[in-house]
Amino acid sequence: MGNQKLVTKLEPRSIFACASLPEKLSFMNNALQHQIEVFEKSRDVNIILDLAPTGTGKTKAGFTVLLHKPTKSAVYIAPTNALVEQQREAAEEFVKEAGLPHVVKSASAREIRTWSDDNVGKRPGEKLYNVLRNPATIFPEVGANKPIILVTNPDIFYYATFFAYNKLDRSNIANSFYTKFATVIFDEFHLYDAKQLVGLLFYLAYSHIFGFFKDGRRVVLLTATPEPACELALQSLEKQGVRIAKINGETGNSNLLPSQTAVNLELRPQPDTREEWLAELTSEVVKRFQERPKENGAVILDSLDSINRLKELLDKQGLTDFIGRITGPAPFKDRQRAMQCQIILATSTVDVGFNFERNPAPTRQNLDWLIFSAHNRAAFWQRIGRVGRVLGKSETNIDSEAIAYLPAIAWEQGLASLNISGGRAALEQTLKDVPCLDKPLLIAYWRSEAFLEIARPLLELEEAFQDIPGAELIPQLFETVKSTLGGNRTWDDCRFRMKVLRGAENISKASLKDVQNKWKFTAGGQAFVRTYIKAKYPEDWEDLQAGRVTLDKYESVFKQDEEAAKDLKEFAEIFSTSYAPLFSFRNSLFENLPIRDPHGYLLDESEETRLDPIHLLRHYEFIPNGEFIEVGSRAKDNYELVFRLSYSDTWQEFVNTELNKLTAFKNCRIERRLGVGGAIRPTPLIQVLEKYLIPGMIIAEKENQYIIFQMRKEGIVSYPIVIQCSNAQKEYRFLPGIAGILTMAMKGKQLRLPDDEPFIV
């Protein structure tokens, strides 16, 4: 039946120790077979996938590849800033043990800002470029012209390779990232979102087409749970001649070392109401604490608010002193304290970079039991791999326990037929065939209008290679990426559309005087003006198409008519802001706020952190207090957030021109109300919410109820929006992020872009 619990046992896992060490790896103690295989295979292949289980030394395996090019630079991309710091320390230790000459530096946006600007300018891009060019420029103590291992995050990697830095620095930084590194390591890449994966796959295609693989570049992909869509993309590259090796670490011919205990696993459908679920979670935690007071456990949920509410419920049960939280807002010292607690409550923050280490280290597994939720396969396998780790422990035969909450629909989609006696293999095969655990937005993103994203670096590269050898490779690179990701756009289509967007961005930032006099000479300006005329003046567009007039006519129009120039600039602002959900690296609408939490609603020991204002608005009462927002109390009931838009024309005009359209809205503000249809609650002014334009899409709720329901189940947020027209007031739904827009497009709804062109999936 759809809601029955399933109980199965996952057999213990082991990993092979190496039989003998190659001479170059003689410094490695207790080496594992997969680490040796990564080193050996990387002699001859371009891309190495290390698929060894979590917690079995994949990081060190990746570093072994450095030994093939011991004087060349490398970059290590870790998925979170917390892991960047951890892997910097691991890289420094490896370099010391191996006797390599490399300088190791970590680089997050915040860290780059702290680097000295004595010998260079203050721009972060200028600092990063100089560190890559010669680390001694910023850090004179390291010595001149040493190779560097740069440990950074996907944000920096994306901004660098997609020419997203300051105009003065973008070409230098991109050139460094594309040409400098002989070894490139992507850690935990199964956790990458669609945009991060586009950056990764584009880099692989570039390395292939421009001959860097032939020159010896090696790319190492570290993951215990490869995403099927990524495997298909890599297969496409393999067909084009890229040499790829996969290593799983669980095959070998020497002695086996236990890596994970047997896990007694119970699969449960997630309850319909959060109150019911939180009560159930509380009961399970209390029972384990009372019945097994010496065991350690954790609860991992996707929702920060659910974790914080669970904490309050457990506090009432007298467990305050035994609980620690590891969440996004939790500062480092709070996380360190939480690691030593008997019960850890965590969000997805712990999916990478946290091994639940305890001091002193127990002789058995660090986590005896785990309760968690998972909305997709990668999250499930990543989290189940956290419990019962015993590699290097003296006690390895004590079973662990886990409860996994999956979407209830999974039972209808085949989970109910699981062979509960089939162990890990049966579970893996069954979960593979459950559609609700897919990441459908991944492929939809690649094949949608967002495919235009790769046109930005391609256009920059095309212009950089203009009239020199290499320009002919740009269309070839586009076709390689297209065959890797899918899609049906041509390079000419994407190139022109990117020029239009570039023109919109430049005109939107220009002064009105420059718009009037210099639009024709602005990069992308002519392409954008053509789009402007087509969208707003169809009859003029026909004349332009027929050759009865030329674009030169509009030089005098914009120069002499200030209102026309203002209209062009406003359309450029709306057009460029509309694309923000497609091109922005972060999905949040607003920047995080500095928060003070004196009562411990979010934090265990610290009082200050940063928080998404949407989370703050929904769940807490607060007051501005100097440079901080101070949390006063938890909201009695979660607020519903409502957008309100003042529209100057009639309701019918709004329906005709703004509905089902990716655009950006002026005169739009956000409010809180008490429940669906409830009264508006006065909200303290937060400056960050006062945005001139807010990008997104407005849809009718009644005709899209099923889609909205499905989005909600997938954790994709949409908001009510009240439209105050000149003759009516109507309520719709607002989709501010790319996930909601793609979901709508995937369900067959015809969506439009700012210039009324179709949104392509």
Q: Brief overview, please?
A:
By secondary structure, this protein is α/β, with parallel strands linked by helices. The strands form five sheets. The chain has a seven-stranded mixed sheet, with helices on both faces. It has a seven-stranded parallel sheet with strand order 5-6-4-7-8-3-9, with helices on both faces.
Question: How many domains?
Answer: 4
Low-confidence stretches: none
CATH topology of the largest domain: Rossmann fold
What kind of sheet is the major sheet?
7 strands, mixed
Task: Trace the largest sheet across and list its strands.
Answer: 1-11-16-15-12-14-13
The CATH superfamily title of the largest domain: P-loop containing nucleotide triphosphate hydrolases
Give the beta-strand count: 27
Mean pLDDT: 90
Radius of gyration: 27 Å
CATH class assignment of the largest domain: Alpha Beta
Provide the structure class. Answer: alpha/beta
CATH architecture classification name of the largest domain: 3-Layer(aba) Sandwich
**Proportion of residues in β-strands:** 15-25%
Instruction: Tally the helices.
Output: 29
Helix content: 25-40%
The gross shape turns out to be globular
In whole angstroms, how far apart are the ends? 36 Å
